[in-house]
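Regression test case RT-17, inverse folding.

Input:
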């Protein structure tokens, strides 16, 4: 059965933005300075950030994630009609130290203590990922922090998911990949990973031909899944 594919993954790989780190926490911190458009600005920023990665991948005109994030923020600022002086720079600085979701540190620490091998696979640049891991207190939990910069193209290119199998010298089916982005789950499933969709916001499912092996609301069910895989 398909669900049996979740047994005994050798590597638990995690998307970073939206899965481990709250991409809206930067604007939330500066809400008083941004004003009533803070939530709208943050959503436009995130939507354009992802759109720019897909478009650049299709054009084969790569820019790193810091540049893409900055361009997306500029579009969002223009769309909402501008920001007070200095807030743009503060938002970009805040993006380097996004808040981890509440359960992340506890769950990852427990998984690591139980012997799991953990990795990040992210669109972020090495500098961005190092800053996010450090600021959220997740140092020492990951066996590898992999940036798409090593592949020179964004997800969902198969070249990105291959970074995990190359880094650990394992087959795709030995990897369980966790992401909050349904399109990312689809790409990982197409590559052959076992997949867990961390559907934090209750979105409708997509890509029925590339289903997730499990759907969860946050990372906590991974602890039970890991215990079950050791028994299986």
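Golden output:
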């Amino acid at each position: 059965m398909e669900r049996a594919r979740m047994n005994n993954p050798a590597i638990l790989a995690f998307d970073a933005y939206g899965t481990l780190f709250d991409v809206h926490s930067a604007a939330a911190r500066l809400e008083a300075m941004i004003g009533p458009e803070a939530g709208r600005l943050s959503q436009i920023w995130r939507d354009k950030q992802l759109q720019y990665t897909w478009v650049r991948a299709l054009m084969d005109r790569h820019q790193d994630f810091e540049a893409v994030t900055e361009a997306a923020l500029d579009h969002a600022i223009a769309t909402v009609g501008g920001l007070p002086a200095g807030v743009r720079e503060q938002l970009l600085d805040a993006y380097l130290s996004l808040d981890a979701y509440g359960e992340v540190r506890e769950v990852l620490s427990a998984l690591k203590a139980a012997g799991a091998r953990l990795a990040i696979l992210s669109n972020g640049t090495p500098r961005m990922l190092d800053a996010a891991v450090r600021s959220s207190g997740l140092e020492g939990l990951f066996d590898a922090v992999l940036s798409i910069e090593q592949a020179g193209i964004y997800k969902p290119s198969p070249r990105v998911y291959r970074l995990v199998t190359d880094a650990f010298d394992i087959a795709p089916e030995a990897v369980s990949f966790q992401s909050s982005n349904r399109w990312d789950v689809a790409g990982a499933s197409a590559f052959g990973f076992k997949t867990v969709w961390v559907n934090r916001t209750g979105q409708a499912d997509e890509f029925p031909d590339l289903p997730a092996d499990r759907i969860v609301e946050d990372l906590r069910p991974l602890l039970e899944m890991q215990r079950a895989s050791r028994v299986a």
